[in-house]
Amino acid sequence: MLVNTVAWMQNNVPLMKALAKLVKGGGGRPYVIVMIGINGVGKSTSLAKIAYYLQRNQCNPLLAACDTFRSGAVEQLSVHASCLSIPLYHQGYAKDPSAVAKAAISKAAEDGNDVVLVDTAGRMQNNVPLMKALAKLVTETSPDLVLFVCEALVGNDGMDQLTMFQKALTSGGHARPIDGIVLTKFDTVSDKVGAALTLTHLTGVPIAFCGTGQKYNHLKPLSVPFVVQNLFS
Length: 233
Fold this sequence. Notes:
It is a single chain. The protein is α/β, with parallel strands linked by helices. About 45% of the residues lie in helices and about 15% in strands. Helix 3 (about 45-55) packs parallel to helix 4 and helix 7 (about 155-170) packs parallel to helix 8.
């Protein structure tokens, strides 16, 4: 069972290398990536790292500030956009996140941006109204990629988070599952890699990226040999 899970993860590692190719081959509509997760796990920073990665691979990203709830969220994303010289679309606060995301996609299409990275508000997995709002955003924007962000040291609560986010996106006839996991603070886990394996094995959702520091280039695919070595060390 362990070998099958590790092999499955390894088969999905090329997702990182293939992402830029998918973006550039998208055709008319911009490629849309939506980042989701609970509060404080590093969604905005992870989004900026992916934007940097795409920019370095000849893509032309636009950031969409769709966290219209948390004070300072737009400003935080604005700092990332300024540092990376990437355009930011926002409408401020107290707006419908779905409407902002759709407007951002239209703006990107008009301006020639080939990928839109949508930042969403953090929410606890048991907050029903906010989970319904997230499902609405995902349904109405039809993203090409939905990435769930969580901390590498999350432990068993990570399963609860991922399962309930997955349920919110696939209930009510939406049928839009999470495509991949971004594990933040992976540089802090040392030999505690069981959560990474468990999340993938029990849900079937691959780990697309691992955050390994604070800099924009601190984003890597999951190292399967690292996981296996530390499980058996």
